[in-house]
Amino acid sequence: EVQLAESGGGLVNPGESLTLSCAASGFPFHAYQMSWVRQGPGKGLEWVATIPRRGVGPDYAGSVKGRFTISRDNAKNTLYLQLNSLKTEDTAVYYCATDQRGTVRGRGTQVTVSS
Questions:
Q1: Which residues in the chain land under pLDDT 50?
Q2: Smaller CB count within 10 Å for the chain: N or C?
Q3: DSSP secondary structure string, 92-112?
């Protein structure tokens, strides 16, 4: 059974940073391309970033490119998302997922950006 557990969310001021983690189990993590998706208040799921199996050549949504960095540690079965220069519009529940649509995802971690 696929299990994904996100952590690291919180309340921050605009311009600050956070690091999200996702502990994966129940499937061969190293064999999967992994993604982060998010859902803002009153909005649908939005793709944020994807990282290939070996971590080379990640892809980002235009709204986060240059501010967010996706990475992975296959030895630790863990996915990361570094969020820098946070904006109020980044407020959302962030999920790690085994696909870009977020069909299989964890319970999420809340990120709130507010002054």
A1: none
A2: N
A3: EEEEEESSTT-SSB---EEEE
- Residue 106 and residue 5: Cα distance in Å, rounded? 6
The CA distance from 41 to 6, in Å, is 18
Cα–Cα separations (whole angstroms), residue 22 to 3, 15, 42, 63: 10, 23, 24, 21
CA–CA distance, 35 with 45 (Å, rounded to integer): 12
**Structure confidence at residue 1 (pLDDT):** 93
What tens digit of pLDDT does each residue of 73-105 get? 999 999 999 999 999 999 999 999 999 999 999
- Give dist(CA 96, CA 45) in Å, integer: 12
